């Protein structure tokens, strides 16, 4: 294990935990992280996450708190709100949700009642648990109906979405998900939502950074409510935001507090503010463009090596691949690639005949490697490592995985990760 010299107080107070932190720093430094929901935050975001703002309780909203001593906290939260509105062009923003799932729960509390019908993308088709899927509280407390993708194209079936909406008349329609490799047509969803008088919720957790960077269309002109995490492509802390038209501001704010939460995590609010400041810079637009360029280049390289990509490729940061033609289950491949220093997650694919805990696919993405400075010129090597790793998984060739890991570690050493200690 590695002892993190960059955390002297932690090392002195709790060497065991400090050692674990050091080991994680080393792991993040040496491996190629391809999980599309992960990224590296800047040193500034890390610092903001660990400030004395941690010490303050702040139930309520700026100017309307239930605790005194909020002179600074009100300014921090207002700064984050104003930056969110500026980056995304939204009329209203709430930066208090603890994470993406609580943010989505607040939407339910604001606009629906238990037993109401809600509509979202089916989880196996690429949706999210909180869009009304059965094992989630949103599926237990509300009547969830799901749309999917076309089996021939892997794209959202808008004929099905419209027919289902007309039949079920949902209170809420969610668009967005966790494994959607193509551009989301917010305008098409908005047209359907208006037709059935539903509230359209755009869950942009995965693509928020791409929207901020101008490489994915914005839902702001079309969606009633926008829900997002602040990490992933946005490169902020583990938090969330809700944005909306001003007409929905009061209902959403009331749903977050006092509806679901107590005091906000002020240190996270500060880190969100920093991330949004970074997202407003020209360099972030360059980053967002590079994320998409890398993903498209990687997809082309994988296709050339015989991989089956859902929808045939990607428009964003995410690639979903079906390993059935390779005769390797997704879980087996993911664990083998992890041994090779390539971090992915096994994932269901549309119309997957296998069980969710042992699916046919893996999900990869380019946010993290782009944050390290890797470019399209590196994607042939990345695709080659994945190809060799999947082949080794099929044959049980651990020697090949060890060799790949050494090659990965060598490249990672040449491209230090933001926010991680060096030396």
How many DSSP helices? 16
Radius of gyration: 22 Å
Structural class: alpha/beta
Helix content: 40-55%
Domain Serine hydroxymethyltransferase-like: 12-386
Subunit structure: Homodimer.
GO cellular component, one term: cytosol
Subcellular location: Cytoplasm
Layout of helices and strands, plus pairs?
Layout: H1 8-13, H2 15-30, E1 32-33, H3 43-49, E2 60-61, E3 64-65, H4 71-88, E4 92-94, H5 100-111, E5 117-121, H6 137-141, E6 143-147, H7 158-168, E7 172-175, H8 186-196, E8 199-203, H9 208-212, E9 225-229, E10 240-244, H10 249-260, H11 266-279, H12 282-304, E11 308-309, E12 318-322, H13 330-339, E13 342-343, E14 345-347, E15 361-365, H14 367-371, H15 379-395, H16 398-414
Parallel strand pairs: 1-13, 5-6, 5-7, 7-8, 8-9
Antiparallel strand pairs: 2-3, 4-10, 9-10, 11-12, 12-15, 14-15
Helix pairs in contact: 3-11, 4-11, 5-10, 7-8, 12-15, 13-15, 15-16
Catalytic activity: (6R)-5,10-methylene-5,6,7,8-tetrahydrofolate + glycine + H2O = (6S)-5,6,7,8-tetrahydrofolate + L-serine
Pathway: Amino-acid biosynthesis; glycine biosynthesis; glycine from L-serine: step 1/1; One-carbon metabolism; tetrahydrofolate interconversion
Keywords: Amino-acid biosynthesis, Cytoplasm, Methyltransferase, One-carbon metabolism, Pyridoxal phosphate, Transferase
């Amino acid at each position: 294990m590695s002892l993190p010299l960059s955390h002297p107080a932690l090392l002195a107070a709790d060497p065991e935990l400090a050692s674990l932190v050091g080991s994680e720093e080393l792991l993040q430094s040496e491996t190629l992280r391809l999980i599309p929901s992960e990224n590296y935050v800047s040193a500034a975001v890390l610092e903001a996450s660990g400030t004395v703002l941690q010490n303050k309780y702040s139930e309520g909203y700026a100017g309307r708190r239930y605790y005194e001593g909020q002179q600074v906290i009100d300014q921090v939260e207002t700064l984050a709100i104003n930056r969110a509105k500026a980056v995304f062009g939204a009329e209203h923003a709430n930066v208090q949700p603890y994470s993406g799932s609580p943010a989505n729960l607040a939407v339910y509390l604001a606009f629906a009642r238990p037993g109401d019908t809600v509509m979202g993308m089916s989880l196996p088709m690429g949706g999210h648990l909180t869009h009304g899927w059965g094992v989630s509280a949103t599926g237990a407390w509300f009547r969830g109906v799901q749309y999917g993708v076309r089996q021939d194209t892997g794209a959202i079936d808008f004929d099905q979405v419209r027919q289902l909406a007309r039949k079920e008349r949902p209170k809420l329609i969610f668009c967005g998900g966790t494994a959607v490799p193509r551009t989301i047509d917010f305008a098409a969803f908005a047209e359907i939502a208006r037709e059935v008088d539903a509230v359209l919720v755009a869950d942009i957790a995965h693509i928020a950074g791409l929207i901020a960077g101008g490489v994915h269309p914005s839902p702001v002109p079309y969606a009633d409510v926008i829900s997002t995490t602040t990490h992933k492509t946005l490169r902020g802390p583990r938090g969330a935001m809700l944005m909306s038209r001003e007409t929905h501001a009061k209902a959403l704010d009331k749903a977050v507090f006092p509806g679901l939460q107590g005091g906000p995590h002020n240190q996270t609010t500060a880190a969100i503010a920093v991330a949004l400041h970074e997202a407003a810079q020209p360099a972030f637009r360059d980053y967002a463009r590079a994320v998409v360029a890398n993903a498209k280049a990687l997809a082309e390289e994988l296709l050339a090596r015989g991989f089956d990509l859902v929808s045939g490729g990607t428009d964003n940061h995410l690639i979903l691949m079906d390993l059935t033609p390779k005769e390797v289950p997704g879980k087996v491949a993911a664990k083998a690639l992890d041994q090779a220093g390539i971090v992915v997650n096994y994932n269901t694919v549309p119309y997957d005949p296998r069980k969710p805990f042992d699916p046919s696919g893996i999900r990869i993405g380019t946010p993290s490697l782009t944050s390290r400075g890797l470019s399209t010129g590196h994607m042939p090597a990345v695709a080659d490592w994945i190809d060799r790793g999947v082949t080794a998984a099929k044959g049980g060739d651990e020697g090949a995985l060890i060799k790949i890991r050494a090659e990965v570690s060598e490249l990672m050493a040449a491209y230090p990760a933001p926010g991680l200690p060096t030396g």
